[in-house]
């Protein structure tokens, strides 16, 4: 290596002796024979033509005259990984050549070891050149280093990880990462997030990674239009330890690349393919045949994937798959029947946007008796789900604990009540955008559940309306701890009062955007809670007043930890006074867009037993600069403060808060 850096022109590289016929002509460019010359890094010329002085073209260094084949042989004989990293600083040409060397092509003979000992003193000089004394001393390669300092760390599994986004993702940068991490075992995890400006990343970059990082275990590629089968095949050929693959919006990748991955990476446990429009059944068939350890599969918006792929996958590895997510695929009832029969290890299943699946598909899946271990099921935007299919799923999944149903227009009260009766292990139920469900269905679920239901959430169900009837108190849902009702405009005080009578053990109450309810509707929930409310969220309930807050703090002040009154315009300083007097464990308070003033902030600051961690007064126009000393006092315990859109607080006050409350995240 020393001969490369100490070349003087009279060796075999230039048999003619001098570079010029007349030695005097070389005085401007030559410093004589056998002189070590250090050329500092400098910007490249904006033109590719050689620079001419007095009609004579400037000669390239002799080492640059060597063809790539010769340099390749020199580089692969370098004794150590640090020497190769040092050479990568010279030029992009050298970097790309170094990144093309596979680990198996590096010489490790006794001769190489002897050369390393003989030239150790010269190598130390190169090391001093390659290692900067101060951060930022390097100026080569447009800021790209073989071992980039921006983000290079070992994750919890002990291997190096790297994440590139936008313009940072390029072939040159991946080559630098490959060369710089090769001596440290290479990357174990690589994540690339592209965008419209990511144009310099192609298959060449992935090829470089595959050569220098054979231990790569996790690969994630998002929104990369220029990366295709060639790069993915290189990963498959050299990175046999790959366990997790995540592809999203990579239109150039087809079945060819994924089949190569499946055939060469038998340790795959998790595969995610989203919006890859050229991936079809062949990929899933190959994964099923060649990846016996596959546990998690996610396929979204891949229109070429159909029944043939799903059936082949589950018939091959259904006994090992524990988690599956299928959305926006062209599959029919056949796929659901196969899942229901072969998914014996399935624990978590999510289905969405399956417009070709009919009522029979969900019915057969429940009747297949193969989902005995299923614990979590989510169904969204599937028009084929009906009351009959829902009841079959409840009976066919005896261990189901979490169920979510969204945008399924055929499901009515009869279906959800029958499901609640059949699913004996159900602990969490969420219904969203199911407009055929009414108040009878909601009350029927609570009255007929198995006694294990702990969380119940309803959102955007427009069919729920107050109905005047007398509810027989034959049973109640004593197991329910959390109740969430969001944006159901038809629900009023009467319906909410009935829910309060059925749920005596609530600790978490979330009533969001219910503009038709008042204090009298919420009071039954507050008064019936026997174990004490821990979290109360009434954001968007515009008719709530200070009287309700006073009752909540009086009955549950010793347990209350989180109180959200965002958008409750009738709330004033009276509520803050009740909070300061009765609450001892409260850690988060949100009174955004309420009618509180500086006096209310002062009351909170004067409560010695309060230890607030998060306070939001966003949009409170009556809060002004006078609150500065009180906010500073509260800031001793705060980690989050939101004072956005408080027009009475000046920028000077904000700057003082930022200066004094340096431990607190302040939104202003």
From TrEMBL:
Xref: SMART domains: FBOX (SM00256), LRR_CC (SM00367)
Superkingdom in the source lineage: Eukaryota
Keywords: Ethylene signaling pathway, Nucleus, Ubl conjugation pathway
Transmembrane segment boundaries: none
GO CC annotations, alphabetized: nucleus; SCF ubiquitin ligase complex
Domain F-box: 66-106
Protein name: EIN3-binding F-box protein 1
